[in-house]
Amino acid sequence: GSCIIKAPGKDYYDICNDTHVVNIYDDQGRLADNGKVILTPLYKTDFPIINYDIGDMASSFTREGVRFITKIHGRLNDMVKHENGESTSVLELRKIPNGITGIAQFRYVQDTYHDLRVELVRDPKDTTYTNEEIDRFFRKRLQELYGDEFRIEICWLDVIPPDPNGKLRCFVCNVKE
Fold first, then answer.
1. CATH number of 79-173
2. What is the pLDDT of residues 134-157, one digit of tens each?
3. End-to-end CA distance of the chain
């Protein structure tokens, strides 16, 4: 469940300290204000998960012994990689499906610095928009985000399979650096 929540009007996220321990570690494995998020759920007693690396990076501050998250940077392995060496968060990509109905599942797959595949599964109960309209919507939003940086391929699937580890990720980067 959610353990980091942003309330309206706040410029930081509260951590649900009664249900989770959230620590942030730098590259040297020291507690820090910026770095890798490590999580321990306190409610899971049947099969405890201790110091789980969720793959997210975050920035934070501590006030009176309580940590607050100021920014969630996204997963280390779920970053859009650019040819100039920069990496950017996929958070804006994740918002695109919220702007249109008719999609049951989605995933973005970046295969090269210039190829982005959008995998979509139709919601059979919502025919408000055609596949072509949804396709155009995604292409327009991706153009607004990245300009002409990517060749966009839209693939309609019956189902998006999970990764070999069982996770369903909404972004996969296959670019090797």
1. 3.30.300.30
2. 999 999 999 999 999 999 999 999
3. 33
